[in-house]
Specification:
With 527 residues, this protein is an alpha/beta fold. Helices cover 32% and strands 23% of the residues. Strand 7 and strand 8 form a beta hairpin. Bound molecules: xanthosine-5'-monophosphate (XMP). Xanthosine-5'-monophosphate binds next to loops.
Length: 527
């Protein structure tokens, strides 16, 4: 195991991610962790970057014992400065300018163990820098192993001990050979085994959940039919069986037959203890007259929380009345790493969830109102890893690869007022669109696709009659981070077939358009 001490950099989780890609197991702990509290001995230690300045009075510092363990250490950015500062307080100073972005790094070969970090790598390469402070001189016993035009000490290594520091970030993909450098450190220098796989993660996580929840404790969580909540729910099921209670709130703006499908998948296929709350009428009634996107979101979000909470209280009461059952103490949330804006900082966990997140506001209400504790088994994982985890857990491929679907559902895919008629039209058109995309074998080429409806109508001619019908807006995008996106380049003949089927099969539609706007300036959803 490699120990990663987190000094609060936004990139620290990427170190764990890269090591997982190398099949190396690591544990990330706060930078102030006491070595004497560990029950295991790390093979090597990585000191992450961080926002503080090592010379500040309140700057975080690693336990002295870290340096006495005798295992290899790699300091990244702040970590490098921490190593240098320990040797002599004057070694780190504020730089003249912030260095942020690409830099050309030159590896220097000095002979001996110091060269092992850049072993098998080209002398010249591109790296990613993000720092203000810098080393003013080399600590005693160290050699410079890398420089950039702006950083004289871009990489340093002790001439005898296995102590390394680099100013740049090998964990970000902009550093082209970053993964090789981390492999050199973890595998070659520390001798870490490359035997970690997603199935290890399943075992570790299951035993962690069991320990956390205890022999009798119960957990509730909302499911949506999406990848994240399904994977999180299945993991809970594996860990604690029917002491996990999944709740699906039907908000009336889900996709065609979605509720039944979720029920089939979770209850029948995955054997998860599921309750469905049918709120569709309350949602659709409440949405009457609301045309403003943010108002729609707020209304749906708030009512969702109310209904979920009512159900949670019912489940808690039922548990209380069951002999030998433990209390419902935890609330499951399928948060992924990219949903966590701030990582665990050295001051303690301070996670903020995107307001966009599916059940925005729910954790806070459950935690404050009902005193439930949050349990987030996917918190360190990225989407592709969650998909891999889903496969490990036996979740079918088409669910594992499902596009994301927003919490407010079809409501933000209908421009203007949401009415039952428009929801029905959007559902049917969407179903045809997605089925045809799947049949064409291109579903996995796009990141998200749907059919939406405009409130305005347009004239068309059908048979010999003039009709006045709704305009369907098809949207399909490719993106890696959902912050920017491109319209998917459809085969025109296929697009035309899709349009024909929608107009023919969905009553009340007179036209079909394809939205080719990129994001920005457009967004992925219509509202
Ligand atoms: P936009 O439309 O902002 O969407 O380009 C980016 C991603 O976020 C999803 N999205 C939402 N998800 N609640 C959610 O749970 C929301 O209110 C919401 N709005 C947008 C959208 O589906 C896309 O994946």
């Amino acid at each position: 195991t490699i120990l990663i001490l987190d000094f609060g950099s936004q990139y620290t989780h990427l170190i764990t991610r890269r090591l997982r890609e190398l099949n190396v197991y690591s544990e990330m702990l706060p930078c102030t962790t006491k070595i004497s509290d560990l029950t295991w001995k790390p093979k090597g230690i990585i000191l992450s970057g961080g926002p503080a300045s090592v010379y500040d009075a309140d700057a975080p510092h690693a336990d002295e014992k870290v340096f006495e363990l005798g295992v290899p250490i790699l300091g990244i950015c702040y970590g490098l400065q921490e190593i240098a500062w320990r040797s002599c307080k004057e070694n780190v100073v504020a730089g003249d300018a912030r260095e942020y972005g690409y830099a050309d790094v030159a590896a220097l070969r000095v002979g001996g163990p110091a060269d092992r970090l850049f072993e098998g790598m080209e002398d010249a390469s591109q790296v990613w820098m993000s720092h203000h402070d810098k080393l003013s001189k080399l600590p005693d016993g160290f050699a410079t192993i890398a420089t950039t035009p702006n950083s004289q000490f871009a990489g340093i290594a002790h001439m005898e001990k296995q102590l390394f520091g680099i100013q740049f970030h090998p964990e970000v993909t902009h550093t082209i050979r970053g993964k090789k450098l981390l492999e050199n450190f973890a595998v070659t220098i520390c001798g870490a085994k490359q035997n970690w796989t997603m199935s290890n993660f399943v075992d570790q996580e299951i035993s962690r959940i069991r320990k956390l929840v205890g022999e009798k404790g119960q957990v509730i969580g909302a499911v949506s039919g999406g990848v994240d909540s399904t994977v999180a729910a299945k993991l809970m099921k594996e860990a604690i069986g029917d002491r996990f209670h999944a709740v699906l709130v039907d908000n009336g703006v889900m996709r065609l037959n979605e509720c039944q499908q979720v029920q089939q998948m979770l209850q029948e296929h995955l054997n998860i203890n599921l309750t469905i709350v049918d709120g569709s009428k309350r949602f659709l009634d409440g949405l009457k007259g609301i045309t403003e996107p943010e108002k729609k979101r707020k209304f749906i979000g708030n009512l969702f929380i109310d209904l979920f909470e009512e159900e949670a209280i019912r489940i808690e009461k039922a548990a209380e009345n069951t002999p030998n059952a433990g209390k419902v103490e935890f609330f499951l949330q399928g948060t992924l790493y990219p949903d966590v804006i701030e990582s665990i900082s050295f001051k303690g966990p301070s996670a903020t969830i995107k307001t966009h997140h599916n059940v925005g506001g729910l954790p806070a209400r459950m935690m404050n109102g009902q005193g439930l504790k949050l349990i987030e088994p996917l918190r360190e994982l990225f989407k592709d890893e969650v998909r891999e985890l889903g496969r490990q857990l036996g979740i079918p491929e088409d669910l594992v690869m499902r596009h994301p679907f927003p919490g407010p559902g079809i409501a933000i895919r209908i421009i203007g007022e949401v009415t039952p008629e428009r929801v029905e039209i959007a559902r049917k058109a969407d179903h045809i669109f997605i089925s045809m995309i799947k049949e064409a074998g291109i579903y996995n080429e796009m990141s998200q696709a749907y059919a939406g409806v405009d409130t305005n109508k347009a004239v068309g001619v059908m048979g010999d009659n003039r009709v006045y019908g709704y305009i369907i807006i098809l949207r399909a995008v490719t993106t890696t981070d959902f912050m920017t996106a491109e319209a998917y380049e459809f085969d025109f003949a296929l697009l035309r077939k899709i349009a024909t089927r929608i107009v023919n099969e969905v009553d009340g539609v007179s036209r079909v358009t394809y939205d080719i706007t990129s994001k920005p300036p457009g967004t992925i959803e219509l509202e």
